[in-house]
């Protein structure tokens, strides 16, 4: 998956999740969207610049980074007594959108 | 780059290989952690070279269609299972015949996909994925509620966070979870994002999500240990076909295990010797966020990870000793900040336990004492699976030595979980050690199975072996389900009690084995008869009505209750946590005694209070 496509999916999922939460969408829509957001969006946003990965390796990294970032962000919110459903979503969504920002190209090959 | 020629280095022995990681060898002389010459490097490269040919998408349709049909047959069979038919041998007795046929055929087909001559990784990976999903969805499809009483305990922590918006590291009941709350806080967030009032449904289906992520992390890690993709997928299949340890439920350890696999794989992949890929900032983010989530969620996994990456770094299996220092720093900072009160209160006990590995291991085996014949078979099946995989891994290890391949990395991964044996942490520690060893054992076992004979013969041998594994896995994984599963009736009765009881209530239980503590858990003081001394149990067994009346008539509590469930009774019969028919007899006596009345009742659970209360 290309970096641009990962960024697009992460951005779209975050947007869609925001709409679903805001509109109190019915369960049949809310659950798949929130599942995809929670397990994929942060990971896709932040691992898109890692090169040369097989699909399964990328999936492992995307899943791990997604659940790790949710943990880190929500633990921080609890530490500062700011944890609510909305604040947790807004904070994770904001972090994901930061990961979607364009970034400069990074040297990925060791010099010869 | 990566090799050097030396007259004396063409026949390396194990001590030389081991020393290689310890002495100061220039980086350009080291290839994947070993000193080798060009001839050996070529031999290794040819042994590791991927022989697979990618199939055209059209030729994938038939194998995938068969895979889907067998997966569907298995799932329909599991969904048709009658929970009431689960017997002393567990779930396996209750699955309809077509579900069992589906499961065997599914596994046989996955083996076929791995051993086909034109190996197609996407198809083989889909096969292993389908097997893992079917296996881990079995309890959710077959039962009304999540398995294991401790999964309900975890639900209680999520409920606490949901109600209060935080945790209380100084809390008296279940403080360990409040001191390592990372998993629970994210689980509470997910519950609310779904718009649900509780996480029971999430806990029921959690093994599927956790095992899918574990499979991804495992395949990633095994891919750093071998370049042969067939070995990666066979190793993954062996892992899941022999992993009966039961740590894949709604729990912080299952969550941390996934991250453990990914952190190790990332380190070996991006900081390993002989790799051309450089780590970029995103790789550091993977390590930092995953490391933090492990440290914040589980107290044991970081210790194994510290030992593993410390060992790999010391033996020069990857560059970056500072990675292990970073993880140790994270663990230490967490221990002196968030978890300070718990660490201060418990450090002395932990230090007392250090150095008594045999007693810790012995406790595991002692706790495995069982009362029923069926449980003897369940116990034997689990141990047998691990012994077979262990023996195959020894063969794989010897094969690596003969081929002069890297043995240090798998050895470190197998050895590092043993750090748990020096800690005092309950009786199941040996099995947790086995779980963390299993990825490296599985890849070595896969290499042994792929070493000899033609592909067809290998496939037949592996197929026969894994089809033999399946009943043993069914017994070992689901053989205790007669008492480790609960009905919706039990859950409803407990929920009624927990929702209506006042603060500072006393709850007397037969055993802890029922869906307990998942709602308002901190309101209660819990006393399980099964955890009392032998003398107390004998006294209670001889005269339950009078003894329980004395216990309940206690002004120190705002309210007092007794709860009996079918799962408590079954556990008592199967593994001897209580006198055999205590729950049944005590319930009958309390029903007949006018000093007690039934407060809540369902098909499989009943709550008593004193009649005058």
Spell out the key features of this protein.
heterodimer; A: 112 residues; mainly alpha; globular; B: 613 residues; 5% strand
Task: Offer a concise description of the structure.
The complex is a heterodimer of chains A (112) and B (613). Chain A has 112 residues and is mostly helical.
Task: Summarize the SSE layout with pairings.
The complex is a heterodimer of chains A (112) and B (613).
Chain A (H helix, E strand, L loop, with lengths): L2 H20 L4 H21 L7 H25 L5 H16 L12
Chain B lengths: L13 H7 L9 E2 L2 E2 L2 H11 L12 H19 L17 H18 L6 H22 L6 H16 L10 H5 L2 H13 L5 H26 L3 H14 L9 H20 L9 H17 L3 H14 L6 H16 L3 H14 L3 H11 L5 H31 L4 H8 L13 H21 L5 H24 L2 H4 L3 H13 L4 E5 L14 E5 L5 H9 L1 H9 L6 E7 H10 L6 H11 L3 E6 L3 E6 L3
Parallel strand pairs in B: 3-4, 3-5
Antiparallel strand pairs in B: 1-2, 5-7, 6-7
Helix pairs in contact in B: 3-4, 3-5, 4-5, 4-20, 5-9, 5-10, 6-8, 9-10, 9-11, 10-19, 11-12, 11-13, 12-14, 13-14, 17-19, 17-20, 18-19, 23-24
Instruction: Indicate the low-confidence ranges of chain B by residue numbers.
Output: 1-53, 363-368
First and last CA, distance of chain A: 27 Å
Beta-strand percent range of chain B? 5-15%
SSE string of chain A, helix = H, strand = E?
HHHH
The major β-sheet of chain B equals:
5 strands, mixed
Number of strands of chain A: 0
The number of helices of chain B is 26
- β-strand amount of chain A: under 5%
